[in-house]
Specification:
single chain; alpha+beta; Jelly Rolls; six-stranded mixed sheet; four-stranded antiparallel sheet; 22% strand; globular; JmjC_dom; Cupin_8
């Protein structure tokens, strides 16, 4: 007895027709899943005749027009900024500048949606000389902080991060990090900031504002990231421009331009299905078209992450990072964003 069609299979047919999969190919696929060929042909014909699908096709065409515009931006960007080759392997690396002036930063990078690694801007931070296990325990050891745990047991740990929150003493967390082997199972991230910014307020005395680029009067005073070697933040894009200021340890960062979004297998909100630690172009062939740019962020360095750029971050050592979004120029792009759902 052949299978009957339900709405999930009808949705599957519609999505594949909108992707220009040939009806004959769909029919063969349905037959391999137990549907009678005559029933499959009838469902496909009904879908093709549906005004709902025809309306969807019109929206698809509009999206293709927007994809073409991204192609123009992508091509022009690659003409303007030829990748800097790493002498060790030919991998494109993020451009590095020293003590970039305010005007050049905003005009050449912020407003042009280009990443840059900036040296020399954190030299006045006491944190670079003070922060470490003993200092953290002495300064804020009695504070109660929020940390994410159980990340290794959840493939979608970042999407499901509210389920992984746990409260504990900061001294206990510092001890845990100090004694840990490399792992992604626990991590204190920006998602834990609402509680931790208050609990660890004393540490903010050690990171004076980077007022060359940031608004020192803003209530946004930065986000604290602290974890062992091996922590990972999967490929995603942010809804703001961001600074990553590295205080302890090193992080490897992989970036993909905003214009390459069509290649990123964006399945939900701002997240990608692609594993940034080992990009699998057989499983995700479109990733072969994406420009992947890398850098290793070390203590005292400041990385500008432009809005919409996909990035994967991995802790190479025990690391502490501060991130900031309170730029002197407009940075409210989230209010126009509404795609907080499955794509």
């Amino acid at each position: 007895m052949s299978r009957s069609f339900d709405d999930d299979w009808r949705r599957w047919i519609a999505e594949n027709l909108l992707l220009d999969v040939a009806p004959e190919t769909l029919g063969a696929a349905l037959a391999s899943h137990g549907f009678a060929p005559a029933d499959a042909a009838r469902e496909i014909e009904a879908a093709l005749a549906s005004p709902y699908l025809q309306g969807g096709a019109r929206l698809r065409n509009r999206l293709r027009k927007r994809d073409w515009m991204l192609t123009v931006y992508r091509t022009l960007a690659r003409m303007r900024t030829a990748p800097h080759a790493d002498a060790n392997g030919g991998v494109a690396i993020v451009e590095r500048r020293e003590r970039l002036s305010r005007d050049e930063f905003f005009e050449s990078y912020y407003c042009q949606n280009r990443p840059v690694l900036i040296g020399g801007m954190l030299d006045a931070w006491p944190a670079l000389g003070k922060w470490g296990y003993d200092y953290f325990r002495a300064r804020c050891g009695d504070a109660e902080v929020e940390v994410q745990f159980g990340r290794d047991s959840d493939e979608n740990y970042e999407i499901n991060q509210p389920k992984h929150k746990r409260l504990m003493g900061f001294r206990d967390y510092v001890d845990l990090v100090e004694q840990s082997a490399p792992t992604n199972d626990f991590y204190m991230t920006a998602n834990n900031t609402s509680r931790n910014r208050v609990a660890l307020a004393a540490l903010w005395d050690d990171i004076p504002p980077i007022d060359t680029y940031l608004d020192a009067s803003s209530p946004d005073k930065g986000f604290f990231w602290f974890g062992p070697a091996g922590t990972k933040t999967p490929f995603h894009h942010d809804l703001t421009n961001n600074f990553m200021a590295q205080v302890m340890g090193r992080k490897r960062v992989r970036l993909v331009p905003l214009a390459d979004t069509p290649f990123m297998y964006n399945h939900f909100h701002c997240f990608s299905q692609v594993d940034g630690s080992a990009i699998d172009t057989e499983r995700f062939p479109a990733m072969s078209n994406a420009q992947v740019i890398e850098c290793t962020l070390g203590p005292g360095e400041l990385l500008f992450l432009p809005i919409g750029w996909w990035h994967y971050v991995e802790g190479l050592d025990v690391s502490v990072t501060m991130t900031f979004t309170n730029f002197l120029r407009h940075n409210d792009f989230a209010s126009a964003y509404s795609t907080y759902h499955e794509l």
